[in-house]
Amino acid sequence: MRIARLLPPGARLITLEFNPAYAAVARQVIAWAGLEHKVAHHSPPSHRHAAQRGL
Fold first, then answer.
1. Which of 34, 2, 55, 8 is nearest to 17 (CA)?
2. Can you give the pTM of this predicted structure?
3. 39: CB partners within 8 A, 6+ apart
4. Of all residues in the chain, what percent carry a pLDDT higher than 90?
């Protein structure tokens, strides 16, 4: 959250979480911190998603 708070205006932090339980917690923390406008959280369905994006 510290990284997201320190981003300059207009910048976004992109996160990936493959575990659905951890993804749910991450979404709650992002919302609690009021950073939905700065953090794009993605929960891809499988490792193939990351491979397609070169991660």
1. 55
2. 0.68
3. 4, 12, 13, 14, 15, 30
4. 53
Helix, strand and coil content of the chain, in percent to the nearest 5, comes to 45, 15, 40
Domain positions in the chain: 12-52
39 neighbors 12 (Cβ within 8 angstroms):
yes
Structure tokens at 46: 């499988």
Name the DSSP letter for residue 14. Answer: E
- 16, 55 contact by CB (below 8 A): yes
| Element housing 44 (H / E) | none
Amino acid at 21: A
Q: Which amino acid is at 38?
A: K
Mean pLDDT, the chain, as a whole number? 85
